[in-house]
Amino acid sequence: MAKDSNGNVLNDGDSVTVIKDLKVKGTSATLKRGTLVKNIRLTDNEDEVECNAEKIKGLVLKTCFLKKV
């Protein structure tokens, strides 16, 4: 069961915000704090979710850096 940084349960299709600036490996892009990420997808690993953020497709984010909206 995937949970965000506050312990709220995450489900497929939820919207989340990023709670700290994150550098994206392999690009020069940075996800800024407060960025809204819509329509997340859960993975087999409950500490990670897949999503598309801004211009970055196929991104995998750790749930400890996310807050459910």
| Spatial ordering of strands, largest sheet | 4-1-8
From the spread of the alpha carbons, the general shape counts as globular
Q: Could you tell me how far the N terminus lies from the C terminus, measured between alpha carbons in angstroms?
A: 18 Å
SS-based class: mainly beta
Write out the CATH superfamily name: SH3 Domains
Low-pLDDT windows of residues: none
In CATH terms, what is the architecture? Roll
- The CATH class turns out to be Mainly Beta
Tell me the number of structural domains.
Answer: 1
Radius of gyration: 11 Å
Main beta-sheet annotation: 3 strands, antiparallel
Give helix % range. under 10%
- CATH topology (level 3) name: SH3 type barrels
Overview features:
single chain, 69 residues, mainly beta, three-stranded antiparallel β-sheet
Describe this structure in words.
It is a single chain. This protein is mainly β and 69 residues long. It has a single domain, classed as SH3 type barrels (Roll). 0% of the residues lie in helices and 39% in strands. The protein is built from no helices and 8 strands. It has strands at residues 16-18, 22-23, 30-31, 36-37, 41-42, 48-53, 56-62, 66-68. The strands form 3 sheets. A 3-stranded antiparallel β-sheet has the order 4-1-8, with no helix packed on it. Strands 5-6-7 form a 3-stranded antiparallel β-sheet, with no helix packed on it. Strand 6 and strand 7 form a beta hairpin. It starts with 15 loop residues before the first strand and ends with a strand.
Furnish the topology, listing elements before pairings.
Blueprint: E1 16-18, E2 22-23, E3 30-31, E4 36-37, E5 41-42, E6 48-53, E7 56-62, E8 66-68
